[in-house]
Amino acid sequence: MSVQTNVDPAELAKFEAMAQRWWDPAGEFRPLHDLNPLRLDFIEARAGLAGRRIIDIGCGGGLLAEGMAARGAQVTGIDLAEGPLQIAKLHALEAGISVDYRLEAAEAAAERLPAAFDVVTCLEMLEHVPTPSSIVAAAARLVRPGGTVVFSTLNRTPKAFAMAIVGAEYVLKLLPRGTHEYARFIRPSELMRWARAAGLELQSLTGMDYDPFRRRASLTGNTAVNYLASFTRPVAGDA
Ligand code: SAH
Q1: Is residue 82 predicted with pLDDT exceeding 90?
Q2: For ligand 1, atom 21: residue with the closest CA
């Protein structure tokens, strides 16, 4: 898979258009703001954050990347949308937090920096990419043996369609219409198959529940809508 083909310009355009409001806790990224502490805790519990070298694929405006850096990680954030990256850089500067933000495809980063990271994160991004398995393979190359890779995405179920598209985009208008495309949602079994093919081992899989009225996020055993999965790259001889 060549780097140039694994990007959908229409998807990037959606995020360019929303870039200015990335850090507005009442804007389109409100659900990500509300989910962020939970996501950070999940990653910290499975992989640690302080002192870890981390690359965040599809970092956007930097909600997760900056959060991880604030907890002591040495973070590189990559994305292919320029506007969100500019916002990420400005916000980190204002917050006095150091993050290395770059306009780079995951596949290119994997060629440049194989096995260079203790942790690779890629949250809410796979469902916007033409060939997500190529991103998973790049993540597996970026992480060092013994390191951890964390993904989150939306499941392709009727419940996810009802909540993430009908509910969030049409009824509650939390997200602009067209933010998500159902056909691009990813079943956990598909993610696990791509990860296994890339040499990763599943560590944990958990659902994320979001109550938009109370603005509360929690982990749940039910992966029908949004879920987090962590994987490890085995040390040679372990697998
Ligand atoms: N991971 C962040 C942002 C999620 S929004 C978070 O969870 O807080 C999805 C991000 O994926 C956007 O910033 C968008 O620009 C990025 N993206 C979409 N397609 C991409 C691609 N092919 N390569 C890199 N980033 C991409």
Answers
A1: yes
A2: 7
Atom number, ligand 1, closest to the C-alpha of residue 130? 22
Helix, strand, coil shares of the chain, percent, nearest 5, are 40, 25, 35
Per-residue model confidence (pLDDT) at position 238: 60
Which helix (DSSP H) or strand (DSSP E) does residue 43 occupy? helix 30-47
Distance (angstroms) between ligand 1 centre and the Cα of 123 equals 8
Q: Which ligand 1 atom minimizes the distance to the CA of 63?
A: 8
Q: Is residue 238 part of a domain?
A: no
- Residue ranges of alpha helices (H) inside 81-124 are 82-95, 106-112
Evaluate if residue 85 carries a pLDDT over 50.
yes
The domain total for the chain is 1
The CATH number given to whatever domain includes residue 85 is 3.40.50.150
Q: Is 189 within a domain?
A: yes
Residue 31's domain comprises 3-232
- 80 CB within 6 A, ligand 1: yes
Q: Is 108 in the pocket of ligand 1 (CB under 6 A)?
A: no
Instruction: Please give the model's pTM, rounded to 2 decimal places.
Output: 0.96
**In angstroms, rounded to a whole number, what is the distance separating the alpha carbons of residues 36 and 46?**
16
Q: 133 lies in a domain?
A: yes
Q: Is residue 149 part of a domain?
A: yes
